[in-house]
Amino acid sequence: MTLFLSKITSPYQALGQPDIVAYLASTFAASDNNLSRFLRENTSKPHKQLCYNKSSTKRILRGHGAFFSQQKAATWRIILTTTSNGTQNTAQKLSLWADILLTRANNGLHFASNIYDQEHYHKVREVALELLALASAKSVEDFEPLHADLFAHRAPIPVSDAAIIDEQGRILLIRRADNLRWAIPGGGLDVGETPAQGAVREALEETGLACEPVALVGVHDSRLCGTVSNAQLYHFLFLCRLKPGVERVDPPSHSNEIKEMGWFAEDVLPDDLDPGHAARIPEAFRVWHGDSQAYFDAHGS
């Protein structure tokens, strides 16, 4: 995406994507490295132009004056470009960024334990609403009736696990730092990624090992597989294999989440497995042995 700032009576001047992305990324870098990385990496070639009205421009620059003063905002307009193939235009990208911020803020407020974190996440919400308004050429006030839905902590929560099994038939498990039990690498999905991408990312963050998905083992409801959680979770479990020729990242970026990791044969699994994983590990081996049928819960609790 390229952001063009054009004075009404003068030729176009271009302010490149790195500038706007750098501003957004630096704003949230302290609290969310994943978001910062997403903003840095998401680029597209400028083609078609999508114009936003002057009031939208003034509102954004007045509330979050990254580049121009409030006075200049009255005489500048923003022209945002879309992708050439039309698969994701600028409005869609802005909406996705807003969705990322809203999800982070809602989850953060759900678990925040002090007033300082709560204030931070409320500010993130404000920025997300500004992005939604810009994407739709509406005012922030237009979203007031939707606050209950936008700010809800949604459940079920999607999570993805990577069952990495090597050529010797051993599965990679991690010992979690929070309860000291063995588990399959995995965790919550980020907005904008597929379940398979989430499983691969979580495995890399926790173990430092790069893997690739081979097959969907199944989708498990946390209430039906023994997972201990106050919220309902949907577990996406993928059979994965290590990427050949890729060295392990040491230490992993999220090494604080695990105590150790190890490879275990199917018949010598540790006794102290994390609740919920004991039921899903056999499913991973089932698919590894050649049964391609993905598991799903046909009936509720």
From TrEMBL:
<dbReference type="InterPro" id="IPR015797">
    <property type="entry name" value="NUDIX_hydrolase-like_dom_sf"/>
</dbReference>
<dbReference type="InterPro" id="IPR059176">
    <property type="entry name" value="UDP-X_N"/>
</dbReference>
<dbReference type="InterPro" id="IPR020476">
    <property type="entry name" value="Nudix_hydrolase"/>
</dbReference>
<feature type="domain" description="Nudix hydrolase">
    <location>
        <begin position="155"/>
        <end position="286"/>
    </location>
</feature>
<dbReference type="GO" id="GO:0016787">
    <property type="term" value="F:hydrolase activity"/>
</dbReference>
<comment type="similarity">
    <text>Belongs to the Nudix hydrolase family.</text>
</comment>
<dbReference type="Pfam" id="PF00293">
    <property type="entry name" value="NUDIX"/>
</dbReference>
<protein>
    <submittedName>
        <fullName>NUDIX hydrolase</fullName>
    </submittedName>
</protein>
<dbReference type="InterPro" id="IPR000086">
    <property type="entry name" value="NUDIX_hydrolase_dom"/>
</dbReference>
<dbReference type="Pfam" id="PF12535">
    <property type="entry name" value="Nudix_N"/>
</dbReference>
<keyword id="KW-0378">Hydrolase</keyword>
<dbReference type="InterPro" id="IPR020084">
    <property type="entry name" value="NUDIX_hydrolase_CS"/>
</dbReference>
